[in-house]
Amino acid sequence: MRKWLQSLQVKYLFIILLAVLALPISLPLASLLVYFPGIMLEDTDEPYGSAEQYEERWHEEASRLNGASPKEINEKLKELSLEFPEAGMFWVNGDGVTQEIMNYDQNLPDQWSSSYTVEFMKDNYGADPFTVIAFIGDEAAGQGFMVTQIDRLFIGPPVQRLDEWYTVAYILGISTVMLGFMTLSWFFFRKVHKRLLRLKEAMEEHGGNGIPSPVTISNEDEIGQLEHSFNGMVEKLKAGRQREKQEETIRRDLIANLSHDLRTPLTTIRASLSDISGEITSRESQEKLASVQQKIDYLSHLIDNLLSLTLLTGKRYPYHPKQTEVNRMMKEIAAHWYPTLEQHQIEIELVTSDPVYWEIDPKWMERIFDNLMQNVIRYASEGKYTRIGVKENEITLEDRGPGMKGSEGKDGAGIGLSIVELMVNEMKLHLIINSSEAGTRITIARKDV
Questions:
Q1: Rounded to the nearest 5°, which phi and psi values hold at 8?
Q2: Rg of the chain over CA atoms, in angstroms?
Q3: Chain centroid to CA 43: how far?
Q4: pLDDT value at position 2?
Q5: Burial of 388 (0-12, 13-18, 19+ CB in 10 A)
Q6: Which end of the chain is more exposed for a tag (fewer CB within 10 A), N or C?
Q7: Residue 394 pairs with which residues in a beta bridge?
Q8: Higher local confidence (pLDDT), 214 or 18
């Protein structure tokens, strides 16, 4: 039940339900706010009173003017006009002539006929504005009549004057509910949005091991479940990364131990072959012995490469960069390989330039070209040519062999090139290999050019 109540869906449905329930409550409240001032006015003194009171007062005033002169009647109307400023007034004398007019803006005839008087009374009976016609003094005296008209709002209950605000009350109520609903919805989704952004940032921010950090569980709703799942994924990634490290350590130690253990018997075999080489006299046997020695050399080189690859991937291969004059270094490497290349009838050409200095490890560069030259002898010797070129920003090695596609299936080439690529990248250099049936061109260039 608690988990159900913490659901984001249930929370938002509660906000909608709250808005629906608040609507019928807000309308009476808004109406009360609008009508409350009018209700308070009920206890205040109103000069007009009710329709009955106002009509009775008008008849009383007309009756008191019995026998009054036109001037006195005019003065009385002025007094009543000051007392009832919202009312319009006029009177007609006994001859039907319109007299003093106060606050009355409708057209009146100068002379009233009996038929017009009857029509006037008929049209204004029960109408709005409220109209009172009272005979002055005694009707038989023939002093005429006086008329007053006033908007019924002023002679009804005070709250009636607020009728025009009735629509405002409903608009105010509905607007209040809608504004409250939108405000609550905005706060709700803003909170959800912030939590999702926090989770997104946690996914994108990786620690030193490349794995995101766990997040704090903010609530036990749907996003909280997502946060739980994210933290579980992080823990699995950490466990997986730890297993990978352990497996990698075991693999490296195994290769290192095997490399070390295989060197001893290979040395023994090589020594034994050297001892018996003088006893073998036939040409065929000598060729077989030379073939065995080549295989032993190849196996020894393969073991060295495996050990070097293991040390490189484990960041345990000694690396000591320094300013090195590249032309001199390449001349020494070419001189070292010249006898071997000559033995295989491979012509070597060295093209150097003005002194060039690179920040590299000379022993690493020597190991790189040892692997590349061995590949030339093993896979491109039929081209009978190799060229080393040195420029300010690059070193190139070219041959005229069948290309790397033509060397597919020959053992050991992949490990050697993997070591070359790792060493080149570690020295912040760039390796480019272009190979075709006409030969292979390998370029080692500086990345800052």
A1: -65, -35
A2: 56
A3: 61
A4: 56
A5: buried
A6: N
A7: 445
A8: 214
Indicate the pLDDT class of residue 6, thresholds 50, 70 and 90: low
pLDDT level of residue 98 (50, 70, 90 thresholds) = very high
* Residues of the chain by 3-state class (helix, strand, coil), percent to 5: 60, 15, 25
| Structure tokens belonging to residue 45 | 């003194």
Bridge-based pairing state of the strands 385-390 and 347-351: parallel
**Alpha carbon distance 28, 169 (integer Å):** 8
Task: Please say whether the dihedral angle defined by the alpha carbons of residues 15, 17, 21 and 27, taken in this order, is positive or negative.
Answer: positive
CA angle 266, 410, 386 (to 5 degrees): 95
Contact 350, 314 (CB under 8 A): no
Q: Which tokens is 65 given?
A: 């003017």
Could you tell me whether strands 429-436 and 439-446 are parallel, antiparallel, or unpaired per DSSP bridges? Answer: antiparallel
Q: Report the C-alpha dihedral over residues 130, 135, 136, 141, rounded to 10 degrees.
A: 170
- Picking from 201, 195, 196, the residue whose alpha carbon sits closest to that of residue 213 is 201
Token pair for residue 264?
A: 């001893």
More confident residue, 147 or 270: 147
Unique residue bearing structure tokens 């609903």: 181
Contact present, 146 and 80 (Cβ < 8 Å): no
pLDDT tens digit string along 278-302?
Answer: 677 677 777 777 778 777 777 777 7
Cα distances (Å, whole numbers) of residue 417 to 321, 335, 376? 21, 22, 12
Q: What confidence tier does 396 reach under pLDDT thresholds 50, 70, 90? A: very high
Using an 8 Å Cβ cutoff, are 337 and 373 in contact? yes
